[in-house]
Design goal:
CATH class: Alpha Beta
Shape: globular
Number of domains: 1
Largest sheet: 7 strands, mixed
Distance between the termini: 33 Å
CATH topology: Glycerol-3-phosphate (1)-acyltransferase
Strand content: 15-25%
Radius of gyration: 17 Å
Strand order of the largest sheet: 1-9-6-2-5-3-4
């Protein structure tokens, strides 16, 4: 269930909301049950295990394998109030995720405050760091601001299927192929900015987070490089 109410929808949209999330979750479960996950971590990184706490980030393109792998973590995620956002929120709810409604452009401040409450309750939150519209591999400021508000470090990870369909979208969205191996790659956590950090310091921290996310992605790609079968 989402933590904030969304907008009203048309009859056609309500029908889609009643059907599409269940079908998507069932399809993801059918594929997810065949996937084989391999956890890797750079020196100094400690992979999270449930029950985890704090803030975690990943790139938007690996949302599907992340949704399946992290379903046992009982995370909450910031999702837009749009119709597409409602589809995603209801699908993730079937997998055990919570949602906070907002975005980086509208409702962002309210969304961060709601996520702060989630963290204060001892539950983890996750960000698609470059979502929902990109540009690809460029993290937004939201996770950094939340880390400043809560003084919690940020964990960075990337999930890469060895074999996947790649959607022609801004994020090159990955759909894992059944029975694929999946690298779960972790970077060292990023410390929170100080409570009184100015705009320049926050931007430096955002770049540090971006670098951590990219290291996780690069390490996952290297893991499968020798096979020549990635994607």
């Amino acid at each position: 269930m989402s933590r904030q109410d969304g907008p009203k929808f048309t009859v056609r949209q309500r029908m889609a909301l009643a059907i599409v999330p269940r079908l998507t979750a069932a399809l993801l479960a059918a594929i997810g049950a065949t996937l084989r996950f391999r956890v890797i971590a750079e020196p100094g990184a400690t992979p999270a295990t449930p029950p985890a706490r704090g803030i975690f980030c990943f790139w938007h393109r690996c949302t599907l394998p992340c949704a399946w792998y992290f379903r046992k973590f009982r995370c909450s995620i910031l999702i837009s109030r749009s119709f597409d956002g409602e589809l995603i929120a209801r699908t993730l709810a079937l997998l055990g995720f919570g949602s906070v409604r907002g975005s980086s452009s509208r409702g962002g401040a309210a969304g961060l405050l709601a996520l702060q409450q989630v963290i204060e309750q001892g539950e983890p939150v996750v960000f698609t760091a470059d979502g929902p519209r990109g540009p690809i591999y460029q993290t937004k400021m939201g996770p950094v601001k939340l880390a400043q508000m809560t003084q919690r470090e940020i964990g960075s990870f990337y999930l890469l299927p060895e074999r996947a369909w790649v959607v022609r979208s801004w994020d090159q969205f990955l759909v894992p192929k059944p029975f694929s191996r999946v690298a779960v790659s972790w970077s060292r956590p990023v410390a929170p900015p100080s409570p009184d950090a100015d705009a320049a310091a926050l931007e430096d921290k955002r770049r540090e987070l971006n670098d951590a996310l990219e290291r996780a992605r690069t390490n996952a790609e290297r893991y499968f490089a020798s096979s020549g079968q990635t994607h």
